[in-house]
Design a protein that fits this description.
mainly beta; Immunoglobulin-like; five-stranded antiparallel beta sheet; elongated
Amino acid sequence: MEIFPAVTGVIWVSHNNQGYVFKQPSGTQPTSTAPVTNTSATASPKVTPPTVTTTAKPAKVKAVKLKAKKKKLNISWKKVSGATGYEVQYATNNKFTNGKKTVTVKKNKVTLKKLKPKKKYFVKVRAYKLANGRKYFGKWSKVVKKKVR
């Protein structure tokens, strides 16, 4: 039994006359798909490191501003560099459990319509970046509140 720390997640490796067999712990995904380049029984296998592409998450959205109008809320914020779009979440309480709704937009402003008059709304915004067909989200902004006219 040999342990190879170069291949993350490998529990043990055994020789089977045709090469080395890498065993993964049950219920885990292999973290390296690097091919074994040396398969002799006496030498340790040399593993080529896999190429890893990392995607940085967008920064936290700052400077969220709200303007109240009749049954509307105009929301604007500072642009985040590298962001593909933004997700705006609003609700009628600060824990976002009552009447929570989410809107996805490409620009750094949005108008929420058909809101209840004389009601206080809480809003938070986060940026996202599309990479490899997946959305990578940044942190939520601070929660801001405003009463609709």
